[in-house]
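User: Let's play a game. I give you a shape written as tokens, and you guess the letters that built it. Ready? Here's round one.
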């Protein structure tokens, strides 16, 4: 596997949003097929062939496993220091499970997770606690994720207490600073979550996530539960915090419109697999997987003339069950471009040029428009 390509080869600085171009005709140069971490010092997190299968048990007294939900079924990607990797896909495709498994909220069934070059897959105890300080999560629902019985001061300070950071006075002062940093008044520390609006609560959730000074944050649909008018404010705040604190984000969302603004690169998931991964602008202008094309066709275009001409690609049928995913290409049961080979051979997740990965036998032709879906 060429790490250069896995990680995108243009060597952008953290936070810098470039307009890359790709050479579609280039030969496939890399396939993510081994378990080694990225050798690139700019990479913070490497995920290799990660699997999370939830067992399905049957039997009243003697429970035996009769199957498994293959929520995440062998995915590989890198996240570079200071970047935002957007992770998108329909409900149930495995986005949250990916984030939770990386953060060790559940143990992976297979594969490897590397953080700062170290294998953290099976760590426990103090080692796990140390890593947890560096990685945290912002949740979708700011109503459910904050303990209603605690004051904002105690909610935000909790990670510092868990990690034994500072004295009570130092923690108090740090919470005051954090509240200001996320755009809330320092006086709000004495209040309870129910006294706030959704947007304010999410700011409290962000302050809490920042309390132990992490470097990597999984933001699991952080704006999906908020009013559209508030969503942009929270996304802007997250961007501002990222550049101030040099944070790295895995930003999970249902649809491609939400991650467009904030992401440096975007990964698209379908039924437990990443089917495409590329620089943000490449994904939106030259998608190389039919599923990405279908997702993109659902995103409204701000220009009224272009919007009028937008042709929606409606996929046939429902997403198959992750208990028994289709063989070979998982998308073949719904793909308008499916051929015999798609039902027989699983496409490799390969680099078609410049760090643009796609798991489609016809990736180059999809990207060039030679194979049209409308
Ligand atoms: N603890 C669990 N036990 C069994 N199955 C699970 C568990 N957690 C998730 N799943 C299943 O794994 C699959 C992936 O779920 P996940 O929550 O990761 O999807 P998602 O992409 O985050 O969806 P959404 O957009 O709805 O949040 C789903 O089929 C889900 O039902
Ligand atoms: S491999 Fe075949 S079925 Fe799968 S996405 Fe490509 S064209 Fe569609
Ligand atoms: Mg989810």
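Assistant: Ready! My guess for every position:
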């Amino acid at each position: 596997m060429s790490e250069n390509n896995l990680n995108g080869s243009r060597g952008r600085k953290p936070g810098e949003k470039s307009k890359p171009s790709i050479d579609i005709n280039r030969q496939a140069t890399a396939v993510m097929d081994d378990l080694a971490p990225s050798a690139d010092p700019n990479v913070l997190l490497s995920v290799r062939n990660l699997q999370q299968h939830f067992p399905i048990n049957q039997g009243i007294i003697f429970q035996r496993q009769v199957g498994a939900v293959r929520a995440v079924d062998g995915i590989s990607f890198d996240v570079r220091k200071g970047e935002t990797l957007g992770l998108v896909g329909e409900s149930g495709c495995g986005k949250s499970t990916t984030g939770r498994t990386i953060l060790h909220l559940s143990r992976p069934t297979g594969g490897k997770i590397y953080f700062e070059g170290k294998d953290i897959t099976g760590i426990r105890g103090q080692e796990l606690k140390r890593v947890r300080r560096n990685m945290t999560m912002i949740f979708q629902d700011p109503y459910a994720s904050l303990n209603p019985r605690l004051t904002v001061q105690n909610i935000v300070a909790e990670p510092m207490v868990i990690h034994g950071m500072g004295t009570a006075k130092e923690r108090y002062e740090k919470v005051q600073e954090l509240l200001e940093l996320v755009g809330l008044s320092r006086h709000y520390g004495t209040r309870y979550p129910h006294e706030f609006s959704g947007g304010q609560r999410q700011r409290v959730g962000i302050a809490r996530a920042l309390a132990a000074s992490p470097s990597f944050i999984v933001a699991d649909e952080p704006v999906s539960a908020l009013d559209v008018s508030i969503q942009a404010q929270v996304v802007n705040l997250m961007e501002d915090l990222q550049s101030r604190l040099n944070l790295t984000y895995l930003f999970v969302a249902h649809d491609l419109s939400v991650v467009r603004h904030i992401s440096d690169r975007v990964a698209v998931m379908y039924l437990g697999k990443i089917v495409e991964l590329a620089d943000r602008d490449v994904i939106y202008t030259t998608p190389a997987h039919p599923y990405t094309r279908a997702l993109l066709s659902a995103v409204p275009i701000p220009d009224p003339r272009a919007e009028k001409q937008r042709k929606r690609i409606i996929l046939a049928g429902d997403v198959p069950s992750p208990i028994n995913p289709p063989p070979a290409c998982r998308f073949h049961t719904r793909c308008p471009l499916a051929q015999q080979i798609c039902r027989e051979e699983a496409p490799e997740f390969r680099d078609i040029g410049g760090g643009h990965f796609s798991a489609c036998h016809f990736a180059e032709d999809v990207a060039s428009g030679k194979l049209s879906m409308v």
